[in-house]
Amino acid sequence: MTEMKVFILACVLAACTISHSSWAGREMDAEEAPPMKPGIKCWAVSYPESVHCTWKLEPAPHLNTSFITTYRQMMETEEEANECIQSLAEANSCTISDFQIFSMIPYILNVTAVNPLGSVTHLHPFIVEQIIKPDPPENLRVSSIPGQRKKLLLKWDPPKSWPFPQYFPLKYLIRYQRAGSSTFRKIGPYEQTSFNLTGIRPSTLYSVQVSAKECMDYGKQSAWSPAAAGKAWDKR
């Protein structure tokens, strides 16, 4: 393997940056410099339909900056790369919708930031199943159960951004706390979208949140849903 191939492979594995400047060797201030490397994050919020990637230039550029975005699997050549779709060339995000699921060969996102003084390329490797992160569950409801003074009924919906919950189910974690408490109790995971919360104190207000994760435990847990509150049934 040649030294150049070794460098490229090491560069990809380290998510490295390659700069190209037409002003090499000249001192420049922040307002007249090529773009800095973009910090990239990719998440499969809508698995297995798409991967959404975002990036941010630090420091923020003073010159108009556009981006060229492509992706490929690690063993493919640059000529085989596909476009990561942007809404505009200046947009700080792109979407990948054509990829293989359950592939252990990493994908490589190539983001090249370009301004009139030069360009910088950042290679960001990822495996799709490792970056799954659903949006939080939606429409959480907390209601009393007639005749049950120590139970609450919880119901919620999968996030609308998760396209096929019947084929790629989610599991859910629940956390709750009573009014005035500074600590949460966490329970789960559960695969259903409803739950009878038991053992609560009568006539006490409880705040509840729910989080989602891919059922086979791939990727990351979602953020917690907005809180919903309720009290158990009271015969008075």
Describe this structure in words.
- It contains 1 helix and 15 strands.
- Helix content is 5%, strand content 44%.
- It is elongated, with a radius of gyration of 24 Å.
- The model is unreliable at 1-14 and 20-30 (pLDDT under 50).
- The protein has one helix at 3-13; strands spanning 17-21, 38-46, 50-57, 66-73, 82-83, 93-96, 107-115, 118-126, 138-145, 148-157, 170-178, 185-190, 194-198, 206-214, 228-230.
- Strands 1-8-7-4-5 form a 5-stranded antiparallel β-sheet. Strands 12-11-14-15 form a 4-stranded antiparallel β-sheet, with no helix packed on it. Strands 2-3-6 form a 3-stranded antiparallel β-sheet, with no helix packed on it.
Topology:
Blueprint: H1 3-13, E1 17-21, E2 38-46, E3 50-57, E4 66-73, E5 82-83, E6 93-96, E7 107-115, E8 118-126, E9 138-145, E10 148-157, E11 170-178, E12 185-190, E13 194-198, E14 206-214, E15 228-230
Feature tags:
single chain; 236 residues; mainly beta; Immunoglobulin-like; 5-stranded antiparallel beta sheet; 4-stranded antiparallel beta sheet; 1 helix; 44% strand; disordered N terminus
In short:
This protein has 236 residues and is mainly β. The protein is built from 1 helix and 15 strands.
Share of β-strand residues: 35-45%
* Rough outline: elongated
Level-1 CATH class name of the largest domain: Mainly Beta
Distance between the termini: 80 Å
Task: Tell me which CATH architecture of the largest domain applies here.
Answer: Sandwich
Order of helices and strands: HEEEEEEEEEEEEEEE
Low-confidence stretches: 1-14, 20-30
Largest sheet: 5 strands, antiparallel
How many structural domains?
A: 2
